[in-house]
Amino acid sequence: MHRCGSSNVLYVVIVALGGFIFGFDASVISGVVRFVATEFQLNEWQQGLVVSAPTLGAVLGSFFAGPCADKFGRKNVLISIAFIYCFSSLLSASATSYSALVFARCIGGIAFASLVLAPMYIAEISPSQQRGKMISINQLNIVVGFSAAYFANYFLLKISASGAEWADSLGMSEHVWRWMLGIEVVPAVLYLVALTTIPESPRWLVMNNRIDEGKRVIGMLFPSAEADKFVRDIKGSQTRTMSSLSERLTLLFSKPMRLVLAVGLLVACCQQITGVNAVYFYAPTIFEQSGIGQDAAYSQAILVGLTNVVFTIVAMLLIDKLGRKPLMLIGLAGVAVSMSVVAYGFSQATYSLSAEKMHLIENREVKEKVAPLLGEVYTNDVQFKNAIVARLGKTEAREYESALIQAAVTMNPMLILAGILGFVASFAVSLGPVMWVLLAEIFPNHIRGIGIAFTGLFNSIVSFSVQLVFPVEVATLGTSVTFLIYGVFAVFGFVLVYRVLPETKGKSLEDIENVLVITPAVESAKG
Questions:
Q1: Helix residue spans in 222-376 (DSSP H)
Q2: In the prediction, which pLDDT does 521 show?
């Protein structure tokens, strides 16, 4: 069994820093969306687009990331991605309109291609027995990034409300959301600098007939006596140099690749359609729906981040022992149960404004406008919100929604918290890290870039759709039905994964190719 040397671990940690920045970039919007919705007077579709805009950019970035990485090398494309993170952070923080913010975040989404390239690079420099754990470091960094964003949002919110002169002089009290978006530039610059120190992927070097360079890097990463064997194994998985993009696309859709592609698309869709990014990117909004108020909602979002970190570490400890498929099944079952708990909790809620709780609404004019609703009982959140909009109008109703729900709702908020944390734990121990491990494993060396890019494209499309429609679903269907839908998707995913997904733990990338792809047929498809 190979052990990762210090060089392997160092390079894995550096590349996985992109996961931290992705996690921060993606989830920081959870604290921003409420402020920009008020400042730019956004409707539900516009809120959804602000949140999902990076994923729209990721559709483009993920598709071109693989081919670009195959042509120019993993390292060069990763450096370009780090630069985009820096640029988009500053552009987002300085946005002066809704359209400018969407554009800036869409540009930043191109950098989400790091989700495709980091696992690819890590898989290609890691021993097979530890590959799952090494790739999972990237996922761990993603969830640490999520947590860092939740912490940053909470503390920036506290600072902005503190009344401190220095905070006012920096514009934090008036435009705290700009600081939430702009602080990302610090880790992005560190990432950009650190990437200049890593070597190119040895498998990419060998696949491009740069044998001496490949041997040198392999010697840095693995016992030097095994360098020649590594080169032979890599060259043995192909019969010619890197083919053109059109040839690789033809091979990807060829008959021998159907099982590989089906598995990749199944896992990529399952990861997103169960609602993970609705939970991550709207966490404070979801908790506000349970009536706990704005400050408590932001603090509970921190629990989401911490749970994510803890159970991602659990996944890292289990993925190379228990295997990929068992973790996927455990996670999907947990997601189905957790989402059902959340749906049940919201279905039991009733809404009725009472004089005793009107002190929660600070604006006297708003109190007067909603006074005719005192004593009225609403059996679901959609009815209550529509009644509030009718009295206040959309803009004012959105601004005071959290306080009004807090003053009116009767439900068990701990049930919602337990269900959301259960969902996060289930996802973090399975779908989160396992998907990227599997995608980095199942595609043959010569089409790994285009294969991960194509499945990553579908992953981004599903993610974009979930984020975009979530505010509309909550406004029209209600929170209970919205989360029930996610639970149903998890049940379907469980059945499909049980029937289709193979196990890949402990096998070399070349061995996995020999199992999943019939070499003669592949060669015939390549012509």
A1: 227-236, 245-252, 258-273, 276-281, 283-288, 294-318, 324-347, 364-370
A2: 41
